[in-house]
Structures are given as structure tokens and as C-alpha cells.
Amino acid sequence: MAWMHLDSSGSTLIEQLASLLIGSVLITSLYGYFRSELYHVLRLEVQTGTLEDARGALDIMIRDLREAGSWGGGTVPSELGGADDPNNDDDTICNRVYAASASLIHIQMDLNGNGNCADTDPRENVRYELTGPTGTCSGSNIIRRNGDCLVANVVPAISGKIFTFYDSNGADLGNTPSLRAIKRVKIAFSVQVKNPDPKIGGSLTSALSTSVEFRN
Fold first, then answer.
1. 4 belongs to a structural domain
2. Residue 106 and residue 101: Cα distance in Å, rounded?
3. For 76-91, what is the mean pLDDT?
4. In angstroms, what CA-CA distances link 19 with 10, 16, 25, 70?
5. Does the predicted model carry a pTM greater than 0.85?
6. How many distinct structural domains can be found in the chain?
């Protein structure tokens, strides 16, 4: 009665279901791992790119501030009015620091020594300020350089404040400093970018800070 002998070489339904369950668990675990690693790399790339752009902008600010009060002709030139004297005030000469507050600094220089502090090549009359966004510059706050967007998605370290001013003794001059007393400027702000991982959401934040001492 050989035909009645059972064939034990196959697998039972229970064994197949168990194998399917184990495979599903492994695939789910691997998917979770690779997804986590993928978004980790994306977060690093996005945050690094944003930070590099902000550092580049900060380098421009540092360069300009270090040149503030550099008079190529050896003496402070007289103001010419108009762009050379934006506020049309009572000053008769160009100013190393033309205006300063917690959210603004306006500096002048005469790098080419032609007696005009309003040249645009090289840029000799520079104004940095924290303002609201524009159609092409995103975020609740931006930093502008002479009206143009320099840094987007800015978050001030203290609400509305990105500049801190110090005198030659290191004393904090407050948010409305005496312009002639300013010797050093601290710049501090953060930049934010949207987290690429939709499961986590929120924003990625990178902080930047530096101090610049005037040469003159």
C-alpha cells in the first residue's frame, strides 16, 4: 500500500505563514532603518548647505566692518550729500559708524581715497539691517545689505537684536550706542530651514556668532 505513504518533504501552511511573518518583520525593520538613515543624511545636507550660505554672508559682514573708517586719502573726507549723507543730517564729514541699533549698523569708508564715501565699486557706504521677508527672500526675518537680501530665514538670538556694541574697554554700549564710542561689534543670529523628514517636521536651526573689532 505504498500509495498510502505520506510525503513529508513539503512544508505545512503554518510553516509558510511563520516564514511570511518573519520576512515581513525583517523587511519592515530594514525599511525603517534605511528610511531613518536616508533622512538623517538629508537633514545633514540641508543644514550644512544653509549654514555654509549663512557663513558666507557673515564673512561679507566681517569684511565690511573691518574696513569701516578706512580713509584711503589719509583723512576723513567731507560728505557730499545725497547717497554720501543718507539722512541729510548736520555731519560735515563721513562717519565710520553712521547709524547703529540692535537691528542695524550703517558704516562708511573711502577705500579708493577719492573723497567720496558713496562709491559702489568698491562699496563704501554699507547698511546692514534686520527686516521682514520679501517676495524672493523667505523667513520671518532677513538680513539685508543695502536693501538686498543677504541672509534668509534669520532668527535673532534676542527678539529684534543681532548687533551688540562695545567700547574700547569692553563695556556694552546698549541698543542705542554712542556712535563714536563703538570699538567692537558682536553679530549673533541663527538660521532656520524646514526639516526634510515629514514624520518629524519642524525646523533645523544653526547658530552663528562672531565679533569684529574696528581697525581704526
1. no
2. 9
3. 86
4. 14, 5, 10, 78
5. no
6. 1
